[in-house]
What we know:
Layout: E1 3-10, H1 13-22, H2 25-30, H3 39-48, H4 57-72, H5 75-83, H6 87-100, H7 102-118, E2 120-122, E3 128-130, H8 139-175, E4 182-187, E5 190-196, H9 200-212, E6 216-217, E7 222-223, E8 230-235, E9 242-243
Antiparallel strand pairs: 1-5, 1-8, 2-3, 4-5, 6-7, 8-9
Catalytic activity: DNA(n) + a 2'-deoxyribonucleoside 5'-triphosphate = DNA(n+1) + diphosphate
Family: Belongs to the DNA polymerase type-A family.
InterPro entries: DNA-dir_DNA_pol_A_CS, DNA-dir_DNA_pol_A_palm_dom, DNA/RNA_pol_sf, DNA_polymerase_A
Amino acid sequence: MPFLLYMTDFSHVELRILAHFTSDPELLKLFQEPELPDVFSTLACQWKGISVDQVKSADREQAKRIVYAVVYGAGCERLSECLGISAGQASQFIESFLQKYKEVRTFTQRTIQQCHQQGYSVSLMGRKRPLPHINSYDYTSRNQAERQAVNFVVQGSAADICKMAMIKIFTCVASSSSLTARLVAQIHDELLFEVEDTQIQELAGLVKTTMESLQSMEALGVQLKVPLKVSLTHGKSWSSMKAL
């Protein structure tokens, strides 16, 4: 029986989580129905106050990099390297972004303050990451811990959702009388399965429904303010994957 590789990917999951935690009205707009196909181009439109047809690839890349600079705590120097601009320009970009999405700054400040008080940061599903240097007298150690505090809330929550997806999909496949698919790898927010080609449509329906349903997890008290979306690809090899 021929087998295929099947990849499922949470679309822009970290940006969605950032929108959820910040409740920033402009970020929430990105994920309202009907959702636009290119979120980062739309983000660039919002941030720079330009129309869609005015967005260049450089604008899109800047918007994408700034989002991840905020999430990862990369700072001006790292952003300047990624975009090939001066540290001063990078600082201006970040500041203008935070002026546009004001609740992002509020979220980061609140998260850091809570970590100073508690000594740890908490993910969407309640996992705690202790950060022993959060109140260090050494500026470099303290600053790194503050970046890690914000990063853990966003990336840790994305990991929570992805792990919950794996658990639920495994349970469904194990209890199925027809599916024999096998999860072979997790790569960040992507799951890679090996599946018989005759089962691809059945697995696709199960996986997409299961993963997108994780927007609401009543047992864990989780209700995301934005929907989760999943993209699906498949192919005979990693290099030949195409949209399903």
